[in-house]
Amino acid sequence: MLWPFEYHGPRDRGEVTKLLAELDDARILAGGTDLLVEMRAGVRRPAHVVDLRGVEGLDELRLAAGGSFVGARVTMNRLLEDEALPWDGLREALSSLATYQVRNRATVVGNLCNASPAADCAPPLLVLGASVRVLGRKGETSVPLESFFLGVKKNAMTRGQWALGVEIPPLSASLRTCFMKRQRIRGHDLALVNVAGAFDPERKTLRIAVGACAPTPLLFDLDEPARQARSPEQVFRAAWDRVAAKICPVSDNRCCADYRTEMTRLFVERIVSTICA
Fold this sequence. Notes:
Radius of gyration: 19 Å
Mean pLDDT: 96
CATH class of the largest domain: Alpha Beta
Number of strands: 14
CATH architecture of the largest domain: 2-Layer Sandwich
Shape: globular
């Protein structure tokens, strides 16, 4: 059951920024699949809810070789079902997330702003070099996704700032991507572990991102192993040494830390063998 709160329906970006800067304890409502659940459970009790539904321009979706943009109101299903979506890893992540009905409401940007360590959109977007376009009273700025996550449920935005969308830089057409995830119940549970990879065979660049094994999703730049190793197995060994040294999985009521570590190792190995072959 919800308690009283004040609802705001701004009509433009400037009004959103003004409300967030001036109101105490205000929360953005886009898809609502995280916020409304947490409000009903009593986890969050905002005094103000700022709905983005009436703000024009936030449903922009542009997928192009020269750079892509996913607006704040773009739902997961809309992106997933766009035939121009070129990255298998991101497509796999979206299709594994929640249920079809939830994806009709859930937004890609909201999944990132919620800043869960297990956010499924985070690893595939991290390996693509994505940034979050943020608007505040001082104007717009672009925050690299690897710097956007500060901790569990904490992001880099300050009071008065909000996310306009996600930017993806120009990427090679030869880029190979992959995503793998382990969860207890498909569609109804957070990832126990999720891992994404991106390999460019022309430039010999490799990125691996790991979720649910630290307070924030982790990104690993592995260009050196990708260029020096002679086989995918050698790339994996070098990659795993770096990943294993940085992850810090915990044991909770869903699984133990050792299981998360082993699944991460297995996914890194499978992803490297898939995209680096």
